[in-house]
Amino acid sequence: MNELDPLSDVLRSVRLRGSVFFHVSCRDQWAVWAPKSSEVAPTLMPGAEHVIEYHLFVKGEGWIGVDGEPPLRMREGDIVMLPHGDGHMVSSAPGMQSAPDDDWLFDEMEEARPLPVTYRGSTVELGLLPPEDATTVIVCGFIACDLRPFNPLIHALPRVLHLPAEGVGAWVAPMLEHAASESRARRAGGAALLQRVSEMVFVDGARRYLESLSQDTQGWFAALRDRQVGRAISAMHADPAAPWTLEELGRQVGLSRSALHDRFVALTGMAPMQYLASWRMQCGARLLRESRSSVAAVALEVGYESEAAFSRAFKRATGSPPAGWRRTQLERAGSPGS
Q1: CA 129 to CA 150: how far, in whole Å?
Q2: Which residues are bridge partners to 59 per DSSP?
Q3: How many domains does the structure of the chain reveal?
Q4: Which one of 212, 240, 272 terminates a domain?
Q5: pTM for the model
Q6: DSSP code for 103
Q7: pLDDT tens for residues 169-211?
Q8: Which residues does 116 contact at the CB level (< 8 Å), separation at least 6?
Q9: Which residue of 11, 93, 215, 328 has the fewest C-beta atoms within 10 A of its own C-beta?
Q10: φ and ψ at 320, to 5 degrees?
Q11: Nearest of 149, 191, 219, 226 to residue 21 by alpha carbon
Q12: Does residue 125 carry a pLDDT above 70?
């Protein structure tokens, strides 16, 4: 593992799976209600523990409305992500509450992904407007990830993550549009291209959020940026099986035992040894899913001296013993639509 990059470590371990599901053209006054991701996940991404939605405004402008958050104006090239899966309104003007009855669109998903949809006034129909007739064009994607045993990333992200066009890489908009077109044309490899680009959009957004944080921010991202706490997290990620103690971590980062503990808790909300135990569970889950190693071998690889101790800890974290959890994961992976 890369000892200097815990963000990449977490991104690899939580199994990002992304795709673009809607290619939308709009005209006149329009409004689209996007329900909570937990409500649409069983249809769009069966078996996903958590689903994040994002929108790229390819052309034109619009607004994003989330309860409890100020309306967000979107301009051409902007991306917005909803990391916590909040329901939201996408509209031509702020404060709009009505939208066409478009639940039937989900029934069309079996035939076409991304689904081309046009919103025009109070009507919704399949297909895209000619480019010159559309005032707004949006690409809408969904990204699935695991929450358990341990995913510090999702909880550290805001409810609404706005990535203005001027900060978004120049490759994003044309690449997403190209991927959507490839998939819609049923060209070989189009679906895989769409999936990978969608995942890259999320990774790029998480990186940009980390880079944008102020010095007084708290949370897991702030902990990564902190000189001492960030080094302690990197050390644990680099070798989770090592017999870490608070004293040894403090020695490596240049802080006393109590100073490291207090600083770690202040930034992450958890003690260093609690973080280590949680990360070991996440590493164990990845090994159970991706390897054929025995539970005893997995236990040793993540720092447990006995299979029994690992099994007890794993069941506390996931609700299932390791063998049962692995069996469930394999069954989900083999189910249609996974």
Answers
A1: 43
A2: 137
A3: 2
A4: 212
A5: 0.84
A6: G
A7: 566 667 766 666 665 566 666 667 777 778 888 888 888 888 8
A8: 23, 24, 25, 126, 127, 128, 184
A9: 215
A10: -135, 150
A11: 191
A12: yes
